[in-house]
Amino acid sequence: MAHKDINDILYNLLTGQLTEDDQQQLDAWLDESPENKQQFDELMNADDFAASYHLYHSIDKNAAWQKFRERIDHTQGSANELGTPKGEQSAGHSSPISFKKLLRVAAAILLLVVGAYWYGVRHATTPPTLSEEVLTAMAQSEENGKNEAVLTIGGQQHVVTNMKQMLSVSTNAGKTESQQPSTTTQQPLSIDPSTTVNSRFEEAATLVTHHDKEFWMTLDDGTRVHLNYNTTLSYPLHFTGSKREVELQGEAYFFVAKNQSRPFIVHTPQGSIKVYGTEFWVKTERDAKSKTTVTLVRGSVGFTPSSGKEQMLKPGQELSVVNSQLSIADVDTTPYTAWNTGTFVFENSTLQQLMSVLAQWYNIDKVVFRDNSLRSIHFTGSLERYGSIERVISAITTVCDVEMEQRDGSIIIRKK
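Given the sequence above, the corresponding structure tokens read:
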């Protein structure tokens, strides 16, 4: 069993990636001293779990390592003074006992820093709690290569495929090239100008998902955001002041961290959403009509149009703004929450509408209907979001009683 640095094990714990070997090594570390156990318990009992996720990535590991080395060198010197014969240790190598002490010092400093940070924020912000289904879907998205976005900070573009990579890039924003970690991936990319957001933030980052990708991200306050394809989110690297503000174009689901003294606001092309609760879905469209739709799952939100008064929503209500005309209706929220758990849900959708969604997601060049009457066939049901296109096609052909053929990046649909 390969031994990892305790910091890497703590990172895996904070992000839900702890392996069985990690757990064994963590248990051994906890058994080494009562102090380790006490500090670890304080860490686990803190409220703002998301803060530790960000804080871990904000630590200058090189500087921290140097301090650890100085501490362990001092420890080795003390050991010699207590009677350890000089010359028994090889130059440049630490004894096993010293290495254990080094790990204890590293972990203790990390836990104390995290604890101090939490002391100031734990009573102000409550991070959202994600279900096991949602966490599983997040893992499936990464495993299937669907979790990907283009992150732009300070004019530099980066392809990111997970939060660890994204936070590493964000932490090193503004550093010179020589200061940035060698693992940071920077690639020149072309982004459709229509997807960009004219941000109001001084230190802004912008995430853009392409037509066949999505991205799960965590904001500075612990708010979780699930971006669908063809979506742009602009946000500050750190929330400051009395409000937490972001800008959205496209489609996203928000799990908002609660903070009554600092409202969370989502700016859209047709108005702003002020969050008084936790979960809601937003979609903006810019085609023949300018449209914004907000569906509230739980909690409370208010929508203020570009010109008009704030309209409050109750759970299970959907607000639509089409060309400045506002309406509110009761809806079933299942289709809006299902995609967070790895499922497409279609309620009385036409086959043409269904295939339009799947063509985006599976990067299909063209859908050809051999008979126009097939376009209006209605479909109600659910499909796996991360299933293979072959399995999806098999399910559709069975339910809709049609034949579907894949050919040269296209899908051809005909009567049986």
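The chain has a mean pLDDT of 77. Try to locate this feature in the token string yourself.
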